[in-house]
Design a protein that fits this description.
Strand content: 5-15%
Shape: elongated
Order of helices and strands: HHHHEEEEHEEH
Number of strands: 6
Length: 198
């Protein structure tokens, strides 16, 4: 005796009610997410992520509160992108950035030359301290250029070397100004040659 509701031989198979597009299986969703994570982060997004975390560290060093999600948004990136770089945040503590870092960045600076005014070099900043010093150097040059600071503001950089290469910083404003007048500048602080993660 046939069971109630059983399909008779030869009769068409009933289709299950459709609820829209078929959802991908859990395995496919996991694999899809894995593929997304394996894709390299675009240079601009990488730079934004590191800039957001650098700002968070600066606020933390000054004893000020910060919202990493908000900082990420202000720098044009997201928390998800920041978490692509495990060296930027502590495992299991998603909103607390690390005190140190183990990533390298290529940064542009002016260096003095013996027979010329100077030149641009890309140096490898392998820690937060070097990165902040070079950033302050570039900011000071910009402020002197626009008249917001006197040329003597560059005196703090005299005799300093930076980066793994121990390159000296050009701190003579008259020589820097001649370079700027010749359109030799470090307007893009981050070099594009190897600005990645080590």
């Amino acid at each position: 005796m046939a069971r109630k509701g059983a399909r008779r031989p030869g009769s068409p198979r009933r289709k299950a009610p459709s609820s829209g597009a078929r959802k991908p299986s859990k395995l496919k969703r996991i694999l899809s997410r894995h593929d997304r994570l394996r894709k390299p982060v675009p240079y601009e997004q990488k730079k934004a992520a590191f800039a957001a975390v650098a700002e968070a560290r600066r606020l933390a060093d000054a004893g000020q509160p910060y919202d990493l999600r908000k900082l990420a948004r202000e720098h044009g990136t997201t928390l998800a992108t920041i978490h692509r770089f495990p060296q930027l945040t502590k495992r299991g503590r998603s909103l607390e950035v690390t005190a140190g870092d183990i990533y390298s960045r290529r940064l542009n600076i002016y260096i003095p030359l013996k027979f010329r005014d100077g030149d641009i070099r890309a140096v490898t900043a392998r820690n937060y301290k070097d990165s902040q010093l070079i950033s302050r150097y570039a900011t000071t040059i910009d402020k002197v250029k626009t008249g917001k600071l006197p040329p003597s503001a560059l005196d703090e950089f005299k005799g300093l070397t930076v980066g793994r290469e121990k390159q000296p910083l050009l701190a003579d404003w008259s020589r820097i100004k001649r370079l700027l007048d010749a359109d030799i500048n470090i307007t893009e602080l981050y070099s594009r040659d190897t600005g990645g993660v080590s």
